[in-house]
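User:
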Amino acid sequence: MYYLKHNGEKLDICEQDIFTECLACGKEFVVDEFFALTSDEAFDVFGSRLYCDECHNKHRADEKLIADRYGIPMEQVQEIVLSGMNRGITREAALVGARLALSTAHGGNELFSMEDVAAAIGGTVDDVAMMIQEEKISPAFVRPAPDFEFLFQ
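Assistant: Predicted structure:
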């Protein structure tokens, strides 16, 4: 039996009582199948951060969009993103890196939003706007194709 101690009182731990906050949006949620996660030797209880279902699904949609754009298996995109995250960068920055690497490898171009750049440099959109002004860069204003607008809502 596992339990927590608070002010000398034992508090039983059961799966439906284990909560965390989403790494992306901060929403509190129950960690489903916590004990199944912890049975995996590679799982680090204290070093791991989880996503709520909504953010998890959004990230999967982003990865699928990248995979479809470059004609590679989604698993390969996930490996690239995970590789970046294992090196200490955020998922958002890893997605930007995957897009940049794949566009370069395929001889193409990629447009990045100010939010993308902010995620990649670990700054804010205001930081990016200031950098653009300082460097006298002319930003491009684009609108997503109607089929992809759901990604930006």
